[in-house]
């Protein structure tokens, strides 16, 4: 084809791998390019779209989830197609994409977690918070996991917003959870939970906590749980005070103020307690067949080479019993077949979204990344909008310069035919809307906002696929 793609007779064909926020914001930005005729095919290995909005955002944060209404609108564009239940690397590979599309965007997020690297971390009862989150959100790959909720004390390592979510879900009452779209099996398991103490461990001080104000406030407003902070740990050390004076930050100031209020708050006698601990790091988990004890070391802060305040272990240790440990110290991306990968940072190597091969340092024509697989696991949902726009703007520059994949097949229907030939039972956006309706209807019957399908087979069966 001689004309540059992007016209009615030769539309720009784009494959987006993944269907979370950054995938939808990338699709949206393509659709908004003036004069560009673009056909977008979005692939997800699950039959359901929305990535972490469905599988990561806490069930009691319904307002955050309502962002999917924006994604629904993007999906209504006549040239948009969703292919759920299609796994990149298995059902569709890099060679296929090169053949069928002019550009592709990886928006696959970060699917695994970072390890603490301490002895005993692999004992039964020690889990990645990301797995617990995926479990209670009904992610089909995680629904069979077992968490021993007969334990009385659970430890959450890390103080980001994921740690806040995990602590809050563990501390929630049945009454609080039943109002949410938490997976039905998780609701039942948590109803019987014997967890009474939740220890949240921060390796640095209150001024360095990664959580944001609404999340730390929520922990102080639980129906069945008190919150406790040690007065000496809520107080700022001299270095943190100086740093905050030099660089005032209202989020940090509010976090510190809220924690200091918690330190003064008398116990209300609720049946559970969330203990927030600061300047402590786990150094070892021990137990016969499963985690029984956690050893922590007290830290002090010192100025790191980059000017930030870093934790330094002292020789003061504490050991306490705990039967459940959730490490919540960050997500990490995983490599995809035939796609460059930066192991150290867990991302696809890229320059502002343009993917490059780290060996040759050459850009890979027509291939882009957006979201967590581009920049790492940081920021809120909205952060992915400018992030995806940056990648698509560069894709547009490349298109103008004629740098696109050498797609040799121009009919869009050939992708469907290929998947059918491979016996892939793919799910369209219309199918997803039917599933969505069924979930809401099932929710109504149970007096809940939604009851999720949590098995791929059940989803396909409900759709008659
Ligand atoms: P995060 O915000 O990066 O927090 C990671 C936490 O782990 C930090 O407290 C960090 O402490 C700690 N940590 C890292 N390595 C550690 C180690 N070896 N030992 C002990 N602690 C360690 O990550 P996240 O909680 O996974 O969240 C990911 C992103 O999603 C964040 O941007 C978050 O805001 C966002 N998110 C938002 C919401 C919401 O809006 N409600 C909900 C969930 C997630 P240091 O600071 O000392 O490194």
Structural description of this entry:
- This protein has 465 residues and is of the alpha/beta class.
- It has helices at 21-31, 52-55, 62-65, 68-75, 94-100, 129-136, 161-171, 174-178, 184-191, 213-219, 231-234, 238-246, 250-264, 372-375, 384-400, 413-421, 429-445, 456-462, and strands at 12-17, 38-43, 80-83, 103-106, 112-113, 126-128, 153-157, 197-201, 225-229, 272-277, 280-286, 293-303, 309-321, 324-327, 331-332, 350-351, 354-356, 363-369.
- The chain has a seven-stranded mixed β-sheet, with helices on both faces. Strands 6-14-7-8-10-9 form a six-stranded parallel β-sheet. Strands 11-12-13 form a three-stranded antiparallel β-sheet, with no helix packed on it.
- Helix 1 (21-31) crosses helix 15 (384-400) and helix 6 (129-136) crosses helix 7.
- It is globular.
- The structure holds NADP nicotinamide-adenine-dinucleotide phosphate (NAP).
- NADP nicotinamide-adenine-dinucleotide phosphate binds at residues 116, 157-163, 165, 203-204, 208, 210, 215, 281, 328-331, 377-380.
């Amino acid at each position: 084809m001689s004309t540059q793609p992007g016209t009615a007779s030769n539309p720009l064909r784009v494959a987006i791998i993944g269907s979370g926020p950054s995938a939808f914001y990338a699709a949206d930005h393509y659709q908004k390019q003036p004069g560009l005729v673009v056909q977008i095919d979005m692939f997800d290995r699950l039959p359901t779209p929305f990535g972490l909005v469905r599988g990561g955002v806490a069930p009691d944060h319904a307002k955050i989830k309502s962002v999917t209404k924006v994604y629904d609108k993007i999906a209504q564009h006549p040239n948009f197609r969703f292919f759920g239940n299609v796994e990149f690397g298995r059902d569709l590979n890099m060679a296929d994409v090169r053949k069928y599309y002019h550009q592709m965007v990886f928006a696959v997020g970060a699917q695994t977690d970072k390890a603490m690297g301490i002895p005993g971390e692999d004992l039964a009862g020690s889990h990645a918070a990301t797995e617990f989150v995926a479990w209670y959100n009904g992610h089909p790959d995680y629904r069979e996991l077992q968490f021993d909720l007969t334990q009385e004390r659970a430890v959450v390592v890390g103080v980001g917003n994921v740690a806040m979510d995990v602590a809050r879900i563990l501390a929630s009452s049945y009454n609080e959870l039943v109002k949410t779209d938490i997976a039905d099996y998780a609701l039942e398991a948590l109803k019987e939970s014997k967890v009474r103490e939740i220890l949240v461990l921060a390796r640095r001080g209150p001024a360095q906590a990664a959580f944001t104000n609404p999340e730390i406030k929520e922990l102080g407003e639980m129906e069945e749980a008190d919150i406790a902070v040690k007065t000496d740990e809520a107080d700022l050390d001299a270095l943190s005070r100086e740093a905050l004076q030099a660089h005032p930050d209202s989020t940090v100031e509010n976090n510190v103020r809220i924690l200091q209020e918690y330190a003064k708050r008398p116990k209300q006698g609720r049946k559970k307690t969330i203990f927030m601990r600061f300047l402590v790091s786990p150094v070892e988990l021990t137990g016969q067949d499963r985690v029984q004890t956690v050893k922590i070391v007290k830290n002090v802060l010192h100025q790191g080479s980059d000017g930030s305040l870093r934790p330094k272990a002292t020789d003061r240790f504490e050991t306490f019993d705990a039967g459940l440990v959730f490490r919540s110290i960050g997500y990490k991306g995983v490599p995809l077949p035939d796609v460059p990968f930066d192991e150290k940072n867990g991302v696809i190597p890229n320059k502002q979204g343009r993917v490059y091969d780290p060996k040759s340092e050459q850009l890979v024509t027509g291939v882009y990344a957006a979201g967590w697989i581009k920049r790492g696991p940081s920021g809120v949902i909205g952060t992915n909008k400018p992030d995806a726009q940056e990648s698509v703007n560069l894709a547009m520059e490349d298109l103008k310069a004629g740098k696109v994949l050498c797609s040799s097949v121009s009919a869009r229907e050939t992708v469907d035919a290929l998947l059918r030939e491979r016996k892939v039972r793919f799910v369209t956006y219309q199918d997803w809307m039917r599933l969505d309706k069924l979930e809401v209807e099932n929710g109504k019957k149970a007096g809940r906002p939604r009851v999720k399908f949590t098995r791929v087979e059940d989803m396909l069966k409900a759709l008659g696929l």
